[in-house]
Amino acid sequence: MPLPKEEYLSASWKDGIFANKVVFCTGGAGTICSAQVRALVHLGANACIIGRNVEKTEKVAKDIATARPGAKVIGIGAVDVRKVESLNDAASRCVKELGGIDYVIAGAAGNFLASINQLSANAFKSVIDIDVLGSYNTLKATLPYLVESAKKHSINSDTLKPSPLGTGGRIIFVSATIHYRTMPFQTHVSVAKAGVDALSHSVAIEFGPLGVTSNIIAPGPIGSTEGMDRLLPTDNKEAYVKSQPLGRLGSVRDIADATVYLFADTGSYVSGQTLVVDGASWRMTAGGAAQGALQYPDFLLSGDAVPNVKGQKTSKL
User: Fold this and answer.
1) Helices 187-207 and 121-128: crossing angle, nearest 10°?
2) Which of 104, 173, 232, 252 is within CB 3.0–4.6 Å of 289 for a Cys-Cys bond?
3) Collapsing DSSP states into helix, strand and coil, what is residue 274?
């Protein structure tokens, strides 16, 4: 059964603005990325979502396709973003079955709570490989198609009139705000997301002359997501939500709307930027999700593992 539109897209956008466009999304079966893709599909796009788990990825693809009658959404599982050959094959299949790639969302990521003492070199490398190398491999696999799409949908530099064919040649890297001020138990993610941000900025400079735009969406605390389940101890949720500047967590719709803004005509001159969608959360002086019972520095000095977190992972030194 289709999700109600208000759960993943605001009423601000005109139906059909992404007609005949194709979006390629790594991490597309995740809570946030699937909402981003669902919004684009609702507005006319077809899509290819990439994931590790075959069954989950194919199931989410079928679900996203219910957003619009006639939508084509391919779910490609068993793809390891750390291996560029795997992504090359996925991108080739996307182009073969859907006709091209106009938009890319690099959203595959890994995260868990661990202090540096608890974080092995292998665990650190795993997050760097998924986030940074995975984003780079996603870029490399799709760049030729993005450049082709950008050329096809270029804006007339003299009249500044939007292309009658719509937009194309755009990539969004899904990042975070953790590294803006740093927080305990998130060293691996802070380093990884800083690298992702630097990658996006470089793409904007090197491929801007070819018409490609590259931007970052940095979600803050988004409710009902796998990320919050992993990072927010269950004994601290109510206090954490209350501490937010807007008095609530964000929603996947907030991220989806930001995605539409950057891919639509509204984002035609936006490139090399970071769009933070966090309700001003990162500007608070208190730390992030790892708070409450995890009082700094007492809990850190105790050497104990972080308790009460879904998807808990352990890492041996």
Assistant:
1) 30
2) 232
3) strand
Assigned domain for 221 exists = yes
- Burial degree of 160 (CB within 10 A; 0-12, 13-18, 19+): exposed
The CATH code of the domain that includes 267 is 3.40.50.720
Number of domains the chain contains: 1
d(CA 124, CA 115): 11
**Is residue 305 domain-resident?**
no
123-133 average pLDDT score: 96
Look at residue 219 and tell me if it is in a domain.
Answer: yes
Answer yes or no: 193 catalytic. yes
Q: Residue 144, SS3? A: helix
- Interacting residues of 31 by C-beta distance below 8 A, sequence separation 6+: 222, 224, 225, 226, 227, 252
Instruction: Quote the distance between the C-alpha of residue 113 and its chain's center.
Output: 19
Each residue of 87-100: b (16+ CB within 10 Å) or e? beebbeebbeebeb
Considering the candidates 34, 135, 149, 175, report the single residue annotated as catalytic.
Answer: 175
Positive or negative torsion for Cα 274, 255, 30, 63: negative
Higher per-residue confidence, 293 vs 88: 88
Q: What is the pLDDT of residue 316?
A: 43
Q: Which of 34, 126, 193, 281 is catalytic?
A: 193
- Using DSSP's 3-state secondary structure scheme, residue 94 falls into helix
Q: Report the C-alpha gap between 134 and 221 in whole angstroms.
A: 23
Residue 274 covered by a domain: yes
pLDDT at 214 over 70: yes
Q: Where in the sequence is the domain holding 277, given as residue range(s)? A: 5-288
Helix axes 252-263, 31-42, angle to 10 degrees: 50
Summarised one tens digit per residue, pLDDT across range 257-273 is: 999 999 999 999 999 99
Least confident of 5-9, 107-111, 151-155, 282-286: 282-286
Task: Give the containing element (helix H, strand E) for 279.
Answer: none
Count Cβ atoms within 10 A of the Cβ of residue 168 and give its class: 0-12 exposed, 13-18 middle, 19 or more buried.
Answer: buried
